[in-house]
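May I ask for an example protein's residues together with how it folds?

___
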Amino acid sequence: MWPRPGSSCRKSGERENLVKGEEGQAVAEFSLVLFLLVLMLFAILETGLLLNAKLALSSSAREVARLCAVEGGNTQKVRETLEHILAAAGLPPGQVEVSIRPTQAIYGTTLYVDMRHEYVIKSPVVAAFTGPTIAITARAVTRSEFVPR
């Protein structure tokens, strides 16, 4: 026998169980999976930004160490160039701690340039798990090439 127009093939009890059981379960599973996918996406993006900042800090430390080796330590020219290097790397100069040891060097002296920066997490999703900042550091070691005249 064919069903009448406007009536359903299923019994009303079957239809309610289908809606409550399977569709509700699918929505719950989708929301859990979506949360994990969004979390992973933001974590990957934030990791890329963090690695970019780390690379910029390392390059800045290496460039400052090279300049210190040529200039003979922590001179005025080194400090001025340091500001430009950090700004070009996208790091705020006032938020980067720089240590250059020794402050004066002659030929053959080992120079150490240490930099530290508190990277601010940009994604609130990731910041909820890691905290608002992550400390990144860089160190460059070189020998002075400066010969006093």
Summary: The first helix runs from residue 12 to 71. The first strand starts at residue 96 and ends at 101. The mean pLDDT is 88.
